[in-house]
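Re: beginner question about structure tokens

> Can someone show what the tokenized structure looks like for a real chain? I only ever see the sequence side.

Sure, here's an example I had lying around. Input first:
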Amino acid sequence: MNRQHGDSFSSLHPSRLNAGSDEDDLRPLELEKFFSWLQVCPTDYGKFVLDALARMIKTKQGDESQGVPSSSSSSPAPSSSIDQDVLRQCIRLSSSFLLTDSTMNAETGIQTWSTGMNRVVDIVLALDKKDVLEVETMTEVSRACTECWTAAGAFPGIADCRTHVRDFGIKLKKLLDPGSDSYKG
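And the corresponding structure tokens:
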């Protein structure tokens, strides 16, 4: 297809990038303005977990007020407003958030990840205390700790996160069956 000089793509042709008038040249400032919309906000696992909890509770309250039973396959106990399927999804993302929080925000990323993971562990502990913690959820949080431990050791700059993971593991280990490495085994 033969494009004429007036076509919108003609100014992008390599032969015209450095030729012609000043208005045909691509200036760095114009490119900066053009690509400014590409800025990506840093992730925040702590906020993500809170948002997920807020939606989960709001959805549960809305369903109860309308008389709709929970659609969760895990069927949370009546005393629990935590959908453990959603909680497990949050837990599965913890190692990804460890990497994105720490790389997209070098100053506070590790803290935002640690805050989120601490919230998840606190929820797991509370569910166990209410005797509604599902084995699948405990398995998932254990797996997440392993993944975070591995990621923290594999990437420079976040090895200190292993201290946080160790602390989470110590809290969770107290939930295991006495003299065993299993939960409700």
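Each token stands for a local structural state, so reading them left to right follows the chain. The CA atoms of residues 1 and 7 lie 12 Å apart.
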